[in-house]
Amino acid sequence: MGTPRPARLYQKTSGVFYVRVLLGPTLFRIESKRSLNTKDLTTARKMSSGLNALLEGVHMNDRKALVDKFLQHTISPWTLPGGVQVSDDDDQRRVSAFLRAHPIIEQAIAQRILAAPWHTMIAPPTAPPIAMPPQAPLVVQAQQIAAIPALAAPGQTPSAAPALLPPAPIQFVVVPTQHPTASGPLPKRPKRFKEACVLYADRYKLDLKTQGGRTSDDKDRLFDHLLAFLIAKHPELGDDPFVHEIDASHLTTFLAEQARRAGRRVDADGEPEGAAPKTMLKKFSDLKHLFSFFRSILKATLEDPASDMAESAEAWRERANAEDVHYEPFQDCHIKAIFDPAALLAGSRDPDHFWGPIVGVHLGPRLGEFVAAKVSDIGYIPEIDVWYLDVTDERAKNTNSVRRLPITGPLIRLGFLRYVEHVRSLGAEYLFPHRNWTCPTAQRDRSKCQSARFGSYLDALNIRERCYVFHSFRHTVVNAMQDAGVPLSHAMQIAGHQAQEHAVKTKRITEEQARSVHVTVYTRADLARMGQEYPILALKDALERSVKPQLDYERLAKAAEIVRDHVKKVGGTFRTGWPAQRVKQTAALVAKLNSP
User: Fold this and answer.
1) What tens digit of pLDDT does each residue of 136-150 get?
2) Which residue has the higher pLDDT, 129 or 509?
3) Per-residue pLDDT for 379 more than 90?
4) CB 3.0 to 4.6 Å from 519: which of 156, 407, 437, 489, for a disulfide?
5) What CATH number does domain 193-323 carry, 1.10.150, 1.20.120, 1.20.1070, 2.40.50?
6) Can you tell me the distance from the alpha carbon of 596 to that of 593, in angstroms, rounded to the nearest whole number?
């Protein structure tokens, strides 16, 4: 068996070549790994061959010193301002990671480098000095050092260079970073995109508290998609680009890709369509708000990409207006079909599916405000004998939606409070404890399951128009209050801001008048004030006077008892309803509705 070569050539996963030099007996395999600082195979082979030729016949104890000397003359290290020396690709990787984590230091180094004469940064001795471009970029990163192939001695071709001599030193050139700010000054405080997004979330979710959990989750998901898009389509920006490196061209192509993604909508042939124009407008608005924060608060960019995308935004807005579907209030025929006791019991065996429409038609809350309510959100005021439901900040859409709703007499006659006391006696925390309100889907969209179930129920009743959804109950209640002459201030406290929006649409007030209405800010149904100790009484009276759906309350109350009796706690798990495939059981329970 032949003697193994003293130095063998390998390549790292990063593409950089290195040699493993044998420094001890073959039996013990004492080796040293040394980087060649090049990704060029031809250059690496030349260096490896030259090193092997020098090491042949050299004693093991002397090899390390010879390798050090060879690499010292072959690979020229580069030095940052301040004397920090970067000798190999491992050093470059560590320096690169450090600079990415400290952009201010990176910018300071770049300024120091650019302050020096440009020709002193270029190593090739035979090349003429290179003048600094008039608008040189200000960011120089460690991984942007590129190698120049070895040069032969003057008057010789590379093939004529002595075979046993080490190749000429490899020189390094600082390669300028390409980014949008090359034509202008840098922002005051450059930030990486990931860190800037964290600061954005902290400000609007934690500090100012103007974003709810669902809104924050939607924005986080959008910003993650943007970062993934930039990494895939614009690798030159790196895996965590600076905010000022992202411009309108990047955001435009990103939103165009988002618009082409198949959504839940289908065309007439059942094929999935792209994102709805309203969805695209929301994404544009979220990105506009994000980069406005980057520019005005963080001072991390000088550009306003949203202003350069105004044309695209206007096109989406026109399409959204053309395709807009306005939800309509349910008509009497719809109310009669939806609340037929037999149909509602057979199609809504679980308590959230049963009580959701009933509470919706009497109080008009959003579905997400009601289905995830806790038992503790149901309260009682003994002095006036009024029960109420608190829509807390945790479930409210916005600050205008945090409110106290009175539980009206029809709901009490249907047995809603008996259901509340039943789940309270079982030790439930939530009003509908059989649902897992801690899973990611429920955290992101509390009403998703119930909304889809109600949509299927409407389809079964042949109510298929897109303008009729669960949200139509809010329009039903708001319309009923307006028709009964309920003061706008009371309607706004009951429905939140939607009563004001409805008043504008129906020409009850003008947009100018609406801007001056802040009733929900200055009035609270749960706080006593001058001349009225219990303002919630006025809201209860307004609802009971205006919202009078024609329902079969007697049979619906029996259906509510059946639903309540099927809410049980087995061990530590809550069980509700019965399987839909038990047709005979369903028929027997529906028959009880007609019993005396």
Assistant:
1) 333 333 333 333 233
2) 509
3) yes
4) 489
5) 1.10.150
6) 8
The whole-angstrom separation of Cα 569 and Cα 433 is 10
Per-residue model confidence (pLDDT) at position 102: 72
User: In the predicted model, what is the mean pLDDT of residues 166-180?
Assistant: 39
Cβ atoms of 304 and 246 closer than 8 Å:
no
Q: What is the pLDDT of residue 169?
A: 39
The class of domain 332-594 in CATH terms is mainly alpha
The count of C-alpha atoms lying within 13 angstroms of the C-alpha of 513, restricted to the half-sphere facing its C-beta, is 10
Spatial strand order in the sheet of 17-22: 7-11, 17-22, 31-35
Q: Which two tokens stand for residue 515?
A: 């801007």
DSSP run (H or E) holding 92: helix 89-101
Residue bearing tokens 């009078």? 548
What's the length of the chain? 596
String of DSSP letters for 340-374: -HHHHHHH--SHHHHHHHHHHHHH---HHHHHT-B
**Which of 301, 304, 271 minimizes the C-alpha distance to 287?**
304
Its pTM stands at 0.54
- Separation in Å, CA 408 to CA 381, 417, 541: 13, 11, 8
Rounded Cα–Cα distance for residues 281 and 545 (Å): 39
